[in-house]
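Task 17 of the worksheet. Students: predict the tertiary structure of the chain below and write it out as structure tokens. Keep your answer in the requested format; marks are given for formatting as well as content.
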Amino acid sequence: MRSYYSYPILTGTMFLLFAGSVTRAGDWPMWRHDADRSAASTEALPPELHLRWVRELPPYEMAWPNESRLHFDASHEPIVMGKSLFLGFATDGSVRAYDTETGELKWRFFTEGPIRFAPVARQGKLYVGSDDGFLYCLAAIDGKLLWKVRGAPKDRPEYQHLGNNRLISYWPVRGGPVLADGVVYFGAGIWPTLGVFIVAVDAETGETLWVNDNSNYLSQVRIDHNTLHEAGLSPQGYLLVNGDRLLVPNGRSFPARFDRKTGNLLYYVQGYRNGDCRVTTMGKFAFVGTAGVMSVEDGREVGNRWVEAGADAPNVFVGSKFHLFEGPMFPYKMIPACDFRSVLTPGFVYGMDRGRFYAYDLTHPQVSEYDKEHGGNPLKPWRWDLPLLWKAESRLAKGNPPSGVMIKAGDRLYGHAGKTLVSLDLPTDGGAPKNGWEHQLGETPSSMLAADGKLFVVTKEGAIHCFGAKEDEATRHALEEVPLPECDDPWTKTAAQILAQTGVKEGYCLVLGLDEGRLVEELLRTSELRVIAVDADPVRVDALRDRLTASGLYGTRVDVRVGSPFEVLLPPYLANLIVSEDPSAAGLDPKTHAAKLFESLRPYGGVACLDLPADIRDRFTKAVESAELPNAKLQNAEGFVLLRRQGPLPGAASWTHETADSARSYFSKDQLVKAPLGVLWYGDGADYGFYKSKDYGVGVKPQVVGGRLFAYQIFSRTLHAIDVYTGRQLWQTKVEHFTRYASTKDGIYVAGADKCLVLDPATGEVLKTFSYQIKENATPQVADIRVGADVIVIAAAYEKVRAIHRGLWDSKVLVALDRRTGEQLWKLEAKDRFNNNAVAVAGGMVFSIDSISPTETSSAERRGDVSQAATAEILAVDARTGKERWRAMTTNPFRDYTSSSNWLGVRGNDDWLAFAEQTGTLLTGRHNEVHAFDAVTGKEIWHKKIGGGQPIIVMGERFINQAGHTYTVATGEIISGKSLFVRGGCNYAVANQHLLFVRDRCASYVELDTQEKHYLRNLRSGCSNSLVAADGLLNAPCFSVKCVCNYPIQTSFAMVHMPGVEGWAGKEPQDLSHWRATGQPAAR
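Model answer:
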């Protein structure tokens, strides 16, 4: 924790329990009015309100549209100071001021990134945080920049990457600013391994008072399943002030508490469930999302019994003590209309649900037990209640309309019943509450505020409605889009030539250096490109921003940034196309910038197309040639110089099957993915990323080939292709039930029912359709697929089930097709069954195991029909003819591997095999028995008892089991001293030559040469492997949707080798064990 400047000592009497207004009483100066986020103003509005004006707004852009617990920006959120309404925009990164009387625009100021949080206003100044990593202070009267402060340290380069589909800082301001006692607090950065910073600055001068920079690396943090683990903060949500504490929302987790005077972290519990980025506070409590309530005193949920349990409190996962977990597993707040949306005052909580108003007594909370049975254990979790003071129905309550927004102004509550605004006058002198003013809005409110004698209502449909005392005809400010002009000027021809010469029509385009922006406009108008333009002249940039914002394209198709065009720190591999309107004026230095341009080009065909004067062209050519850029192709065409990045990155490799390859090695040959790793991109939305519900191993795992990630969404039955370098969705297509697929450079082989489709990897279009038959008048149900050098092998069943422990991975028939023609070459029927974990294609052969399934052994045990052993027949056949090469039998314990429907027991203990290419060895096993055979002759080489489960990772002459131990393929001897990893959560480890990737609660990786382990700390990977090292990146599509565990973020992402970031994750963690035991921080 760095303390840059001394902080003024504030005595206890100077901290108010109810954070007071820092502006005049009639203002609404920050989100939900004040630093408590109470949504309560003392200003009374006129009893009857009339619509004064309406302003239509651009569509708002949420950072995390698919995860409600991260919806800190689910609405436009204006504030009001004096006669101005201020509003920040995520689309164009601007903050705008509007006249409260008329709705007219007063001024607009652009930042360099999306603004996702409401500004804060105080004494003529406006404070706004941006995804560009800065907190800005503007003059409220005209928007003039007074000062700005960067959240990250000054010695950190201003790196940018794609975050939530926008080019943003590595350290975006996602801890929404709050102001109290002349200090503005905010948070920057969401990736603990890149650094996270909580900052306090003087509201007048911008002087940094303190920075907490060590809360990104914490140990002994209570997380899900009552585990103590390494973690790190990921601040996302509006910061709050409660007395002398600063509360920092932590995305999907519980908020962290800081000492406001020093910036030191107080005790923190990440929690198991109920976490949320939307937090409000009053008195002793913080309301977290819709389900959580936290004690501000100790940072724990009010439903926890861990403290009260004393010596009986569990510190690990104990089924009989679920009710005593430090992070409660069971619900404890059951009362309606009491959550982050409620209005808070020092003594009361006011809420609204389904058209009904509720009032609760906040001063007399009640805790009681209730009965719960879980896993056969009788449990007694706590519940937390507030006494209900009264309940009042609006006139529309009988229809149970949704009611999601509510505020208090004076002695009146304002809310909504569906699309109708309603109000309620609070009871006085022991009377009853009374229904008041109503207005049929016709739109759904998403936010409200009361200020300047007016009620402002923001709607989901995208408008601000202003209501006041005057009954005049309302003014409507329509959102008018001005289409880009269809001109016939030199830029029209230039854009056409560029598109024709490069062949690029979609993807990301960098325009480095502007003239007037006409090339940008033409590329947008005549292609599907997403354009990022950079120029050093802020006047030129703002003029172009104005035109593009008016066209409705800014933020969705185009971003324009101020900066030195050839010096800005852009992410590698971003651009399908790089152009410039004036490279000379933009400062192109061929010797310095040729290699930098090349670094920004996407592999597999990214191209820079520049119109250069002859002298600069010659220098550029020489610079490219002398740099010896790998896979670079330089050519001249119609006055342009084209620098193209051909093919894959040297040293990169593919991941063609969910098992890495058809040999089932679970090992990537990619040489580029190594520590340290930085985040290249992250986010999931309608046209970027990939998000999939946790499936406990049921679905197909992701594959990467040719710069594209292929992932299957099992519930919608759609196969998706994602650009691995940007997260951009390339295509999606509908497929059959029980689809399995394998990915190669020439096609995506998609097996479903009695067809195998070959899809174009670039477009998803069907190139070929192959049919096959396993039995007359029988439609196959596909279990799996392998694609070898010249054959396709499909494992199919006559009937299929969804559950793994009932045989989802089992098949009855193997069918081989010619990979080129689709001709059915042969089929092989099992005596008992094949299973997906024991089918491989390698070395010109198909290897399989025919054995009794765990389902059958389980049924036999229940019948009392238990044999002494279960045999497994290992068969090797010629891949082209199906002719037997050899067979062998192994004997295994006859036991129930399903472990009462536990699919992990099936995966870890069922038959498996893997081909070790380097030694020509076939490894097989079941339960703790492992056999090695000569793959050509079938001669058994060795047989050992080796635990740890499968899948094994075959790394040349070694293999690693799921206990993290390394063995030689040749002898089966163990060669590792200690386990490389611990698995935490339902997943398995995979590897490349440098790193091993595994879920140990959060996503993590281990350096194989040093055995150093790196936790990402803020998110988990899938229930089965979703960490794929391929095409030079660690690819991680989101396979954890609907997971209730409190990981701060939930997203797809990609990481890239990035020397220089290794120190950013922190050197020594803050250990919270002393805090937990004593309630006090450890000595520093």
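Marker's comment: Residues 538-551 form the longest helix (14 residues). The longest strand covers residues 824-835.
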